[in-house]
TrEMBL record:
Organism: Mycolicibacterium hodleri
Protein name: D-aminoacylase
GO cellular component: cytosol
Organism ancestry: Bacteria, Bacillati, Actinomycetota, Actinomycetes, Mycobacteriales
GO molecular function: hydrolase activity, acting on carbon-nitrogen (but not peptide) bonds, in cyclic amides
Record domain Amidohydrolase: where: 44-559
Signal peptide range: none
């Protein structure tokens, strides 16, 4: 037989968690037809000896809701093996929407997810009102990577309640929202998302609509999902990570209580964000125990975890710079990076900036950085050390060198021609290590996610977490246990695909989609983050490229080869759950 494609002699890690095997993979019409020893010829043959052959990665936590309307590849995620991206997380998105609420939704996305409003305003062509019409618009656009969309609760509230979106809904409001949810699920939404943490605010400081929704509203919307067929509920719970806002009304323990009870009642898959905080680093064990109890009662709940710390990168390319509150530094901020660095190397400029008192309104935050944060502030360095030790901190360097930590910070940030970053881990870094995170990731009840692809453009690039899991956790970690290769691949492929009901992908087996990564594991790794101005309206963001992905294929067509994007557009919109092949 002549196939369209044969991938020969690779180390097949099939996405099920089973041991890797040396095998061929044959593809016809975008579908895998044979895995094993394949006889016959092909129109194209890839010699994969020495390469890992894995399913394409399924990233369940992205914020490409706007970018998906103009970027067919969804950079930077496509540089990190992602072939299916699920968006509409955290209750934030762009449909359904009334014509007079476009700017309001952009402001919400800008505030919560740090995506430049100018880029969204310039880049989005509003061709929809209902969620189904939004899906139609996504489907019309040729794309390289598959996208799936969840219906966001904040947009839903604004669509139904208008100016009253932050208020308690009436019975009629809940009925109208339930109807819109059912319509969205039937149109192809893969689920619904709730954002319930007081830490999420719009660019103008408003809470996210639905932050304080009562249980009757939540239950009604979950019932609508169940009645319409099926779909995942994704939740950012109140109190996540121990971050309690002044008017936060619920704790994460109370959140997990209703998540478990309603999950068992309505029998829909449910995932909530779970992170370790420094104050109570063992809390996650109690949450996981509650989840197991709920699942024994019939729920299908998965705590969603990251593969590295949740925090920010501070530096001259970041929106967050330790000196941004000092007048002299602020006067230089609009200079091109090379000119700014040249000015900052001037000893007189350095002395003046270090001697300045921060602006009065920011003195408290600057003082907090001085007294507390230097012990948690680490140079990222050439090695991109996302799990640094206490002795690597700015405070430790300053103590060893008998210098002021502000001066150390100033000098470090001039490294790499001003492109150095300082890592500030806020969550998932209790005890200055990843021991808790390892245990969370190793627990089969957890779901891998939280990469936030497309979001937090000014301070992080965590879309690279897939590559980090496959390189650092599988191969490079020395400060504690690693993750087996087969487990890591399963967590990025078959497991999330199964949870979201995407039975046509995530596993290398006959009948499944030929979404495939060919990976040189020995050379797999991350590039240093960099700032680019490639968004609409010239807006900037941090991106991070990778090495080691020899090819990434969607439906058997190469979309990225050795880091370079191709012109192939085999991807599309995923409308709802996809059945397992017969």
């Amino acid at each position: 037989m002549t196939y369209d494609l044969i991938i020969r002699g690779g180390t097949v890690v099939d996405g099920t968690g089973s041991a890797a095997v040396t095998a061929d993979v044959a593809v016809q019409d975008g579908i895998i037809v044979e895995v094993g020893r394949v006889d016959g010829s092909a129109r194209r043959t890839i010699e994969a000896d020495g390469l890992a052959v894995t399913p394409g990665f399924v990233d369940v936590h992205t914020h490409f809701d706007g970018q998906a309307t103009w970027d067919p590849h969804l950079t930077p995620s496509c540089w990190h093996g992602v072939t299916t991206a699920v968006m509409g997380n955290c209750g934030i998105g762009f449909a359904p929407v009334r014509p007079d609420r476009h700017d309001w939704l952009i402001e919400l996305m800008e505030g919560v997810e740090d995506i430049p409003g100018s880029a969204l305003t310039e880049g989005i062509t509003w061709e929809w009102e209902t969620f189904g019409e939004y899906l139609d618009a996504l489907e019309r656009m040729p794309r390289a990577v598959d996208v799936a969309a969840q219906l966001p609760h904040a947009a839903l509230r604004a669509y139904v309640m208008g100016e009253r979106a932050l208020e308690a809904p009436t019975g009629d409001d809940i009925t109208a929202m339930s109807r819109a949810v059912a319509d969205g699920i039937r149109a192809g939404a893969v689920g619904l998302s709730f954002g319930r943490t007081a830490g999420h605010r719009s660019a103008s400081g408003e809470h996210v609509p639905g932050t304080f929704s009562e249980e009757d509203e939540l239950a009604a919307l979950m019932a609508a999902i169940a009645a319409a067929g099926n779909g995942v509920l994704q939740v950012v719970p109140a109190g996540v990570g121990g971050e309690m806002g002044g008017d936060q009304r619920h704790s994460i323990d109370a959140e997990i209580d209703w998540i478990g009870r309603l999950g068992a009642q309505f029998k829909i898959p449910l995932t909530f964000l779970a992170m370790v905080n420094e104050q109570d680093p063992h809390d996650w064990q109690r949450w996981f125990a509650s989840v197991r109890t709920a699942n024994m009662a019939g729920a299908n709940v998965r705590p969603q975890v990251a593969s590295r710390a949740f925090g920010m990168l501070m530096g001259h390319q970041s929106r967050m710079n330790p000196f941004r509150h000092r007048p002299m530094y602020r006067s230089l901020m609009n200079l091109p990076l090379s000119e700014r660095v040249r000015a900052l190397r001037n000893p007189d400029v350095k002395a003046r900036i270090l001697a300045e008192t921060p602006d009065v309104g920011d003195a408290h935050s600057a003082d907090q950085l001085n007294r507390h944060t230097f012990k948690r502030l680490y140079p990222l360095g050439d090695a991109l050390d996302y799990e640094p030790s206490a002795e690597d901190s700015i405070a430790a360097i300053a103590e060893r060198e008998h210098r002021d930590p502000w001066e150390v910070t100033y000098d470090v940030l001039l490294g790499a021609e001003g492109r150095e970053f300082l890592l500030l881990p806020l969550l998932n870094y209790a005890g200055n290590n990843y021991d808790h995170l390892h245990d969370m990731m190793s627990d089969p009840v957890s779901l891998q996610g939280l990469g936030d692809g497309g979001a937090h453009c000014g301070i992080i690039c965590d879309a690279s977490m897939t590559t980090y899991l496959m390189s650092y956790w599988v191969r490079d970690r020395t400060r504690g246990p690693r993750i087996p290769l087969e487990t890591a691949v399963h967590r990025l492929t078959g497991d999330p695909a199964d949870f979201y009901g995407l039975g046509d992908r995530g596993v290398l087996a006959p009948g499944r989609r030929a979404d495939v990564n060919l990976i040189d594991l020995d050379n797999l790794g991350l590039h240093y983050p960099e700032r680019v101005e490639d968004l609409p309206a010239g807006a900037g963001r941090l991106i991070q490229r990778s090495d080691g992905y020899v090819e990434t294929l969607v439906l058997g067509e190469t979309i990225v080869a050795e880091g370079e994007l191709t012109d192939n557009r085999p991807g599309g919109l995923v409308r709802g759950a996809q059945p397992l092949p017969a």
